[in-house]
Write a structure and sequence with these properties.
heterodimer, A: alpha/beta, Rossmann fold, 4 domains, five-stranded mixed sheet, about 40% helix, B: Pyruvate-ferredoxin Oxidoreductase, domain 3, six-stranded mixed sheet, about 15% strand, globular, binds thiamine diphosphate, binds iron/sulfur cluster
Chain lengths: ~625, ~200
């Protein structure tokens, strides 16, 4: 069990993660079905639910092949009367969105909660600083925003209640600092969930065609209007003063932390629909208002609109003083609002000077020791050089963008390597190489591949098949052969899928066999046809865990000191973190070597030798 | 009042587990607890600063600037990296002097600072500093540097830098790391007995 605290008794107080609290809230609401595709900062919701489902067998959980499918599966369960939840990172909403909007029209029978985790600051997302709250308004989807771990649990439960009462999917919108915040949470009771239901045919409900379409649209608008009144009480106002601050999510906690005096503080818990009457009440009699929200001015625009009617003289501050980029913290907020409040900004100039003065080596994330992707990148570069256009995709292999490889010339979104390459090839005639992970292949790679094959460009495609969805913490995918609930199943063979598209040059190669890998790259690159190499080698981190759980040890290698200098250039080319450079000499840090054998294949003959197991343990006392 | 502990280190060093021990112990003492655990790319050797705050008035999950009471650096330069949260009149540092060179140094050729220069970096931000070779001591004693974390908690407690009851910490260690408990308890005790 990942964290048994999540299953603590009702009434108990525990310290858990925001994401764990959301999972617990779902259980307390009688969750019967859940399906997700992983994505930081939402992943631990699914990880927690998967773990509990596997151990208790009380409800169904799966890792679906992408977010759209996960959302649809949850809709199907909710259509059939079983409460469901899916959780995605912000980009997952983009993938699911095509199905999200119609489900608002059809409505659901049982509660359905859609957790959407935004990532201002891009702690764990490269693609954009998207503010998913726009979707709520576009799709008329009720939205709740927790500000801490306790609320993560409580509002998940509340979301199920609202969803079921109004027969609409409800969004729980979070940000990284909520998902990954920890805090004390008081637990409630977990009822026995309903896991079986029945789909009842209903033409009027499930066919969003005109003229039913317009009728449905009216029904949704009516529901939203009603909800705005009924649930205005979720928001709250505290404190008194002529100056008001209105906020939501984690920003509310930052404001409370600041302990400001003589302020009327409004917290919006429901950010779609925003209650007009609540905002009017808040604005009455205020001279100044500050809207504190991360990313886009969504609440701000609404407040400005309401103020025109109820308090036109009020001075409103928002994105004119607070950043629209990145996330907030107490310091950023205080710096922005202090002048408005007539307070002195805290002076950190001396500290700033010190901070600038200290030189700390950066710690960039790197591919793990022994990572299969390293071996693949090395082989492709060895054979094709640095010249081809290297299309990147989303996974651990994005780290190949850095030195020494620099082999991810661009990446947009999952699966985009295929489409973008297609466009580049059609207009440029450049040689292209596509790198795509196995999970990404199933997620969004297949439609792009179909298009490539059909329209005849000739890229070399390398599927980085590490047998798992690694970057988000090792979730299975359709090629893995195990379900989220731990059952063995038949894995879908990527090679067979690719062949079925009519591609002739397809081969699965052991990632760690440089000779074979390089030969295949050479062979396929020499043909004037599309080629697909499935470079297969298990994620080393996962492999290490498996070995550990079986009580087995990974092999280790060391460099013959007499040949150390001759290895330096090669070491630079593979950049394995276990290989350390001091001056012109290199050596392998034994406890960091995960024994993939890559260095042994490419360093000068005899330079790298396996360490006998007995020897390794005798060296235990050594310095790191 | 709120007591703010910032634990930091490198992915794989057990920073998260250590923060859970502190958080659980604070809860056992009857405190409200807040904090953060940023996961992200931690498994691939990135820095992971983890915040634990306890007391009645903790709202923000992040420690506000310059308000850390204790910074527990499980790796020297990671301790220096979070000085934004440290203040001269407030912050105590406990630093495990076990260096983990960023592998990017191998490419960039950047040099890794000595303990002495790390000390100089922290000086202007520290009320007090304790440098302890916890991971190495534990590696020699138990064959695994990981126990250095629990030893560091012991050091913090005996130095009066962690206002949590000893019994609560012991309970939290038991519930958080039930495997290898004996070694963890021994490491904790070594921490309690540590004198600079
Ligand atoms: C639409 C979307 N969903 C989820 C993610 C989060 N995500 C980033 S990398 C990744 C894993 C991809 O797995 P794979 O392609 O197998 O590469 P690996 O990490 O295993 O090397 C995921 C799910 C995302 N960036 N975008
Ligand atoms: S987690 Fe796996 S795939 Fe990702 S960098 Fe580490 S070894 Fe490579
Ligand atoms: S040192 Fe060599 S064998 Fe060990 S992990 Fe790195 S490349 Fe693989």
């Amino acid at each position: 069990m990942e964290n048994p605290e999540v299953l603590g008794k009702a009434g108990k107080k525990v310290v858990i993660l925001g994401n764990e609290a959301i999972a617990r809230g779902a259980l307390e609401a009688g969750l019967g079905f859940s399906a997700c595709y992983p994505g930081t900062p939402s992943s631990e919701i699914g990880i927690t639910l998967a773990d509990i489902a596997k151990n208790t067998r009380k409800f169904y959980y799966e890792w679906s092949s992408n977010e759209k499918v996960a959302f649809e599966a949850c809709a199907g369960a909710a259509f059939s009367g079983v409460r469901s939840l899916t959780a995605v990172k912000h980009f997952g909403f983009n993938v699911a969105s095509d199905s999200v909007f119609p489900v608002v029209y059809t409505g659901v029978k049982a509660g359905m909660v859609f957790v959407v985790a935004d990532d201002p600051q891009g702690h764990s997302s490269a693609q954009s600083e998207q503010d998913s709250r726009f979707y709520s308004r576009m799709g008329m989807i009720p939205t709740l925003e927790p500000s801490n771990t306790q609320e993560c649990k409580d509002l998940t439960k509340k979301a199920f209640e609202i969803s079921e009462r109004f027969e609409l999917p409800v969004i729980l919108r979070t940000t990284t600092m909520v998902n990954h915040s920890t805090g004390s949470v008081k637990l409630g009771a977990i009822p026995k969930p309903k896991t079986k239901g029945r789909f009842v045919k209903d033409f009027e409900r499930y066919h969003s065609i005109k003229p039913i379409l317009q009728k449905m649209h009216c029904v949704v608008l009516g529901k939203i209007q009603k909800m705005e009144k009924q649930y205005a009480g979720l928001n709250c106002i505290e404190g008194t003063g002529k100056t008001g601050i209105i906020t939501s999510g984690v920003s509310y906690q930052y404001i409370r932390e600041l302990g400001l005096k003589n302020i009327r503080l409004a917290k919006l818990t429901m950010t779609y629909p925003i209650s007009r009457s609540f905002v009017s009440r808040f604005l009455k009699g205020l001279k100044t208002v500050i809207v504190v929200e991360e990313l886009e001015p969504i609440v701000e625009d609404f407040v400005r609109m309401v103020a025109k009617d109820v308090n036109p003289g009020v001075r409103i501050y928002g994105k004119d003083i607070l950043p629209r980029v990145g996330e907030f913290n107490c310091d950023i907020i205080m710096n922005a609002i202090a002048p408005v409040l007539g307070l002195r900004k805290p002076d950190f100039s001396a500290q700033d000077k010190w901070l600038k003065a200290i030189k700390i080596p950066v710690r960039k994330p790197v591919l793990c020791p022994g990572c299969p992707h390293r071996s693949t990148f090395y082989a492709v570069k060895k054979v094709l050089g640095a010249k081809p256009v290297f299309a990147g995709d989303i996974g651990c292999y994005v780290l190949g963008m850095f030195k020494p490889f620099e082999m991810q010339d661009f990446f947009l979104s999952m699966g985009a390597s295929m489409g973008v390459t297609h466009g580049i090839e059609k207009v440029s005639n450049q040689r292209t190489v596509i790198f795509i992970g196995d999970s990404t292949f199933f997620h969004a790679g297949m439609p792009g591949l179909a298009n490539l094959v059909y329209n005849d460009p000739k890229p070399l495609i390398v599927v980085m098949d590490n047998r798992i969805t690694a970057m988000t913490g090792h979730q299975p995918h359709p090629g893995t052969g195990i379900t989220a609930m731990g059952e063995k199943c038949k894995p879908i063979d990527i090679e067979a899928v690719v062949r079925s598209f009519g591609i002739k040059n397809v081969r699965t190669v052991n990632t760690y066999n440089q000779k074979e890998l390089q030969a295949t790259i050479k062979e396929f690159a020499g043909k004037d046809e599309i080629g697909v190499i499935i470079s297969r080698g298990m994620c080393r981190l996962l492999y290490r865990k498996l070995m550990k759980s079986q009580g087995r040890k990974l092999p280790k290698f060391r460099i013959n000191p007499a040949m150390s200098v001759r290895c330096a250039q090669h070491a630079k080319e593979i950049a394995c973190p276990a290989i350390q450079r001091e001056g012109s000499r290199v050596s392998i840090k034994e406890d960091m070597c995960w024994g993939c054998g890559l260095c042994a294949q490419i360093f000068p003959k005899g330079a790298v030798q396996p360490v006998a197991v007995g020897q390794a343990s005798a060296k235990k006392g050594g310095k790191k | 009042m709120t007591y703010n502990v910032l634990l930091t280190g490198v992915g794989g060093e057990g920073v998260l587990v250590t923060s859970v021990i502190v958080a659980r112990a604070a809860l056992l003492d009857g405190h409200e607890v807040r904090g953060t655990q940023l996961h992200g790319l931690a498994q691939r050797g990135g820095s992971i600063p983890t915040h634990v705050r306890f007391g009645r008035r903790a709202h923000s999950p992040l420690i506000p600037r310059a308000q850390a009471d204790l910074i527990l650096g499980l790796e020297p330069i990671e301790a220096a990296r979070v000085c934004y949260f440290a203040g001269k009149n407030r912050t105590s540092f406990i630093v495990d002097t076990y260096p983990i060179r960023p592998s990017s140094c191998n490419i960039t050729g950047e040099t890794y600072p000595s303990n002495e220069s790390v000390k100089r970096m922290l000086e202007p931000f520290a009320k007090k500093m304790v440098f302890v070779d916890a991971s190495n001591i534990c590696r020699e004693k138990f064959g695994n540097p990981i126990y250095g974390n629990v030893m560091a908690i012991g050091v913090a407690l005996s130095a009066g830098m962690l206002p949590i009851k000893k019994q609560s910490l012991i309970k939290a260690i038991k519930s958080t790391v039930p495997r290898g408990l004996e070694k963890n308890m021994a490491a904790f005790k070594m921490g309690l007995e540590f004198r600079e």
